[in-house]
Specification:
Number of helices: 1
Strand order of the largest sheet: 1-2-3
Largest sheet: 3 strands, antiparallel
Mean pLDDT: 77
Structural class: mainly beta
Shape: elongated
Length: about 110
């Protein structure tokens, strides 16, 4: 269910601007939990949900002229598992990753 060996997916570009106009980008999950530093003390990550755990996996672009993308429908379009969806998030990741999540994968 992952795109590539490092656990990447396709997601919406959370930082679209003049330098990064792409709508679809490759994103990588950087697992983190709100209690990740509990061993060291209480309340050390008070704004945990302010930063996404799915981030741009750069440098990378989605190139159309590759064997993997020879057939858009067979490669990506309509393949829900390739896109970051609500099921890919833990409850505590939902708020911070709202800009990346693909509610409905693009069809053919």
């Amino acid at each position: 269910s992952h795109l590539g060996p490092v656990g990447t997916h396709v997601g919406r570009n959370p930082m679209r601007d003049g330098r990064h106009p792409e709508y679809w980008v490759t994103v990588r999950h950087f697992p983190a939990a709100p209690d990740g530093y509990a061993y060291y003390g209480d309340g050390l990550l008070p704004a945990f949900d302010a930063r996404p755990t799915w981030n741009l996996a750069t440098p990378h672009t989605i190139v159309l002229d590759t064997p993997q993308a020879a057939d858009c429908t067979a490669s990506c379009h309509g393949k829900r598992a390739l896109f970051v969806g609500p099921a890919d998030l833990k409850d505590y990741e939902v708020t911070a990753n709202a800009a990346v999540v693909v509610e409905t994968a693009p069809g053919p």
